[in-house]
Structures are given as C-alpha cells and as structure tokens.
From TrEMBL:
GO terms for cellular component: cytosol. Belongs to the UPF0149 family. This is YecA family protein. Transmembrane segments: none annotated. PANTHER family: UPF0149 PROTEIN YGFB (PTHR37528:SF1). It comes from Shewanella benthica KT99.
Length: 191
C-alpha cells in the first residue's frame, strides 16, 4: 500500500511547523504507533488524548494538523493491523545521511516507548518476549548518532529498523485487539 502524498515526512513537518509544534514527524509517528500497539481502544478517538498530551500538552491541535494526524492514525492502523499493507516506522529516505537516519530511528523508538507506556499499564506483566523487545528498544533509543557512512553501518541500521518494525508488530499482537472477537472486528472497520 503506497503512502498517501499528504503523509510524507516533509508535509507533516510543514504542518507541525505551521502549528508551532516542537516535534518531528518521526516522533509523532513513533508515539502514535506506541499508542496503537499499547492497545488503545480503536473504535473511538481514544488515541487522540494521549497523543495530544505528548504533542501539545493536551491542548487541541489546529484543524488542518488534526485532520492530517487523524489521516496518519488511520493509515498507520491499517498498516499495522494487516501485514500485507507493509507497516514500517516513518523514517527519512535512504538518500539522507546515515547519521540523520540513525538519529531519527532513535527518536522514533523513544517516542514509541513513551506512547506504549502511556496506554499500557500492564507492560511489566507482558510476555517474556515483549519484555525483552521493550528492553532491546530502550537500548536502541540510546544508540550513538555518529556513525560511519559505510556498508557495515548501513546494514546495522537496516537491522535495527527491521527490529523496531517487528517489535512494534509483536507489541500490537500482544496488546492490540483480539481479532478473533467478532465485535472487535466490526469496531476496527475503518469507514
């Protein structure tokens, strides 16, 4: 599934800047994915309150930005709930310097961990696998930004990015909706 043009990083950055929100698109996406993977109720705008707490101290966003973030939520939810839609963290393109991409990955992971912690009070009671990936993600969040622009560093970055993706999917499978429940399936249908 192709990313809608409106949800490109540069469009989100322009909207965040226009609203004077001091976060990057990478941080907003990481927090949003954390909130979704933490098991926030998907049938209502329940995701909005914790995200606004992180983005804007709980204050409403200007309408254009709110609509864009809502579109990002719907797109992200579609991607993370159906493996065929190709979920991955929102990060700079590979044309950007590796140092910038590593820093963005670290910010995405930090925001993901914050988002999941906001909505999942039982994270310390999660399965051993989830607890281990949370610990590993915390280590990734502390990664050094000053990396060499070589093939070995590029491969390491790709592995960390793939790990973040799989970790998010694992958290979603543990804390997300039980898709065997028919009522929940109906609540997850995006209209």
């Amino acid at each position: 599934m192709a990313t809608p043009p409106s949800l490109r990083i540069d469009n989100l950055l322009a909207a965040l800047d226009a609203a004077e929100i001091g976060q990057t698109p990478v941080e907003v996406h990481g927090a949003l994915v954390g909130i979704i993977c933490g098991g926030v109720e998907q049938s209502k705008d329940t995701w909005c309150k914790p995200l606004l707490e992180l983005m804007n101290d709980g204050h409403p966003l200007p309408d254009p930005l709110h609509l864009l973030i809502e579109e990002l939520y719907q797109d992200t939810l579609s991607r993370i709930s159906d493996i065929e839609f190709g979920f991955s963290p929102m990060l700079p393109e590979e044309e950007e310097p590796l140092t910038q991409r590593v820093e963005a990955l670290s910010l995405w992971v930090q925001s993901f961990l914050t988002g999941i912690a906001m909505v999942q009070p039982k994270i310390d009671k999660a399965s051993a696998d989830v607890q281990e990936v949370i610990k590993d993600l915390a280590d990734i969040a502390l990664i050094e930004f000053d990396v060499a622009e070589d093939e070995e560093s590029e491969l390491a970055y790709m592995e960390l990015m793939e790990f973040a993706k799989v970790a998010a999917l694992l958290c979603y499978s543990e804390f997300g909706p039980d898709l065997t429940d028919l009522n929940q399936k109906e609540a997850n249908v995006i209209h």
